[in-house]
Input
Amino acid sequence: MAVMPEGAAHRVLILAPVGRDGPATAELLPKAGLAGSVCRNLEELVAELGMGAATLFVAEEALFARDLGALRDWVCAQPPWSDLPVIVLTSHHQDRRVTAWRHGLVESLGNVAMLERPVHPLTLTSTLKAAVRARQRQYEVKALLEAREQAAAALAREVDEATAELRRQMAERERMQDALRQAQKMEAIGQLTGGVAHDFNNLLMVISGGLDVLERNREGKRARLLIDGMRNAAERGAQLTRQLLAFARRRPLHTEPVDLARLLEGMRELLDRSLGDNIELEMRFEPGLWPVEVDAGELELVVLNLAVNARDAMPGGGKITVKAENVPASDCVRLAVIDTGTGMTPDVQARAVEPFFTTKEVGKGSGLGLAQAYGFARATGGELRIESELGRGTCIELTLPRSLHTPADQRMPEAEHETAHVRSGRHILLVEDDEQVASLVSDMLEQLGHDVLRASSAAAALGVVADGRQIDLVFSDIMMAGEMDGLGLAHELRRRFPDLPVLLTSGYADAARGVIEAGRFQVLAKPYRLEDLQAAMGKMFRADAH
Ligand SMILES: Nc1ncnc2c1ncn2[C@@H]1O[C@H](COP(=O)(O)OP(=O)(O)OP(=O)(O)O)[C@@H](O)[C@H]1O
Ligand SMILES: [Mg+2]
Output
């Protein structure tokens, strides 16, 4: 015997107010495993229906000649899954009027079955059970429909979420592409800058070296003044190329463990002097600040550049805060230079690190300060970030890699110029493919009292040496046209004539870096002055003498 689930939705609603039909049916139901509920009139039936029912069991006389509007409305308003079974117990009346009324009843109540009196109890219970089972199926369909709706809603939610995620990823990719484009642009500018600087250095070499020669040969106050002016210009040019090369990352960085607080405190006097009276300078360092692995000289230049920028942004005075703190998450130290100045417009901020970008008057700014800082940050393996609000101020932030070594107590003093007099009269083979530079350098060497032989390529130099002429030292440019550059020449000479000293020179420090790293050859960086050349020679010959 199937036991029907409990609850209003699973009961048989009985309406048979006249005679024994109602109570008798109600008694039969529990034995058949069904639940029933007896209603006293049509109104009560409709009210009970509202609470749910599996089927209706109605004696026709309870409906006949009554207003069935409310019941009909309920039947019509059923949801699509629902088709309430109605079992009508008919009487013996067979006249036409009653038959027509029964047809109408079937039309208006839909799922109607008629049972004619007298009804055998088994017929009654089996009919009711069949109706309840049919209703049960409808409930199952309903549950299935609801489950499907929920699944569809869940799917729709997932689709929404996935779409949002996709949008986010697309935006992120867009942002990264922008950053990449920017980085590529900077890289291209960097390469260009490096190339310009290289030529520039050769030019400076001609100027400053020429001046040295002139200086030793000319007397007179006017010549003196001219020479000083020209030398200043050349030095300014050399300073510019230093910044350019730092930006282009073509200058080797000599990184070492640096105690940031000590380095910056050491700059205080210099900064105070450059900033002027109406600017307050505050330095704040986290206690236990980690040492950083940087090129100390370059970093000083960066800080000076940032401080000067901050000063320029505060014509009416203000405050500069130099702050450093550890960033454990990325194992680096964050250095920030913060000002209370004019700030930058978004346009200026976007272009600020471009070399030669400046908003300052002609002659006031070259637009290289931030470019140098940016190049430094990149070459050091860190980043440079700008935050700026118009009218409020600017914060330039650098991340510097942490060093795991202890900084030397004191920074090594600058290598002293080698002034020891070198015995002159040496035979120098000068290898240089730039005619102008070659003639200047040979003048310089002669000025120092040496004999100079010239070769304009590595191959020519090898030829000269192989000739068996007396050569005490080969002085060669690194960057040279032809199959072999200066470094190749140096290696070849070292192989064939291990005792012959080789001094290299380059204005293009990328090339020089390889050499320095290999640690095998001495390199003199261009542009150099007569005393630098003399010092380098002195070192070579002294080393030679040992
Ligand atoms: N702290 C700052 N506040 C406001 N604007 C700034 C600041 N720092 C830089 N800028 C803007 O960025 C531009 C570029 O700065 P950058 O240091 O590269 O060049 P510069 O200062 O103009 O010239 P240079 O430093 O080579 O003498 C500046 O001209 C200025 O407009
Ligand atoms: Mg600047």
Summary: The pocket of magnesium ion (ligand 2) is lined by residues 305, 308-309, 365, 369 (CB under 6 Å). Residues 461 and 467 are 10 Å apart (CA to CA). The chain is about 50% helix and 15% strand.
